[in-house]
């Protein structure tokens, strides 16, 4: 019985966090410029099918990796891996929207806790000058403060971001639609 508990505890301790498979530096970029509709999404098993469908509709669709945008510093970890520093940006225009992409991470030390994970940071601006707050494209853990280092988890994290113009009585208003996925944990004293 004691051995069984030790084995189970060891397996649980070694299990990757629930969001580990969602940590990614690539995204899907789909632009319908004539309609000023922009979609940024995570790369998953359906990514290629979504890209092909968008291209078949005449939309610009591509995979973008933000990892190469992240600078590596001279400081190195114990095994010699360079730490991460600032990120360059990649700017794309889609109709009335401009999207600026950069690379984000949890830990500058790639060998440190959660150091392997990188995500796209997204800033979207409309030609009218309306600028939306920065977002992180990915899935976060709301119970871990480190996820809110760059943008607040879960409100400023999204697995899909859609920018479009909302029809109304006046000028068409730029809006964002966000899909969220996040993990959280609570103890018995943490009432919702």
List keywords for this structure.
192 residues, mainly beta, disordered N terminus
Would you mind describing this structure in some detail?
The protein has 192 residues and is mainly beta. The protein has one domain (23-180). Helices cover 12% and strands 41% of the residues. The protein is built from 2 helices and 14 strands, in the order αββαββββββββββββ. It has helices at 2-14, 47-56; strands spanning 26-32, 37-42, 60-65, 70-76, 82-87, 90-94, 97-105, 118-126, 135-137, 140-141, 157-158, 160-166, 173-179, 182-183. Strands 3-1-2-12-13 form a 5-stranded antiparallel β-sheet, covered by helices on one side. Strand 1 (26-32) and strand 2 (37-42) form a beta hairpin. The two termini are 35 Å apart.
């Amino acid at each position: 019985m004691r051995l069984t508990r030790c084995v189970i505890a060891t397996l649980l301790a070694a299990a990757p966090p629930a969001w580990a498979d969602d940590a990614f530096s690539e995204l899907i970029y789909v632009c319908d410029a004539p309609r000023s509709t922009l979609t940024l999404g995570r790369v998953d098993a359906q990514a290629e099918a979504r890209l092909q469908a968008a291209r078949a509709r005449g939309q610009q669709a591509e995979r973008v990796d933000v990892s190469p945008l992240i600078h590596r510093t001279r400081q190195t970890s114990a095994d010699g891996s360079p730490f991460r520093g600032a990120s360059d940006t990649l700017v794309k225009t889609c109709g009335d929207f401009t999207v600026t992409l950069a690379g984000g991470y949890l830990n500058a030390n790639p060998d440190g806790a959660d150091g392997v994970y990188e995500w796209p940071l997204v800033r979207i601006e409309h030609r009218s000058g309306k600028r939306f707050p920065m977002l992180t494209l990915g899935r976060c853990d709301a119970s871990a403060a480190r996820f809110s280092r760059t943008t607040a988890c879960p409100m400023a994290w999204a697995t899909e971001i859609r920018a479009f113009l909302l029809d109304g009585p006046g000028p068409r208003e730029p809006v964002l639609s966000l899909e969220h996925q996040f993990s959280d944990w609570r103890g018995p004293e943490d009432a919702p």
